[in-house]
Amino acid sequence: MHPPERHPGLWSGRYAQRVWVEVAEPGSLEVGEFEAANCTGDMPEGIGALVAVLGGVSSRTDSAGVHHDHDCTLEHPGRLPRTSLRVHSCPVSLPVTIADVEAAAERLASQNPLTPLLRLPGGGAVFAKCENLQRTGTFKFRGAYNKTASLSPEVRARGLVTDSSGNHGQAVAYVASLFGVPAVVAMPRNAVPFKVEQTRRWGAEVVWTGEGSEERTRVARQIAAERGATHIPPFDDELVVAGQGTIGLELVSQLPELETVVVPVGGGGLISGIAAAVKAKLKGVRVVGVEPELAADAKSSLESGQRVTWSAGDAVRTIADGVRTQTIGELNFTLMRELVDEMVTVPEAAILQAMGWLAIEAKLAVEPTGAVSLAAVQTGAVRGSGPTVVILSGGNYAPELMAQVLSQLA
Ligand SMILES: Cc1ncc(COP(=O)(O)O)c(C=O)c1O
Question: Tell me, which fold does domain 98-135+237-409 have in CATH?
Answer without folding.
Answer: Rossmann fold (3.40.50)
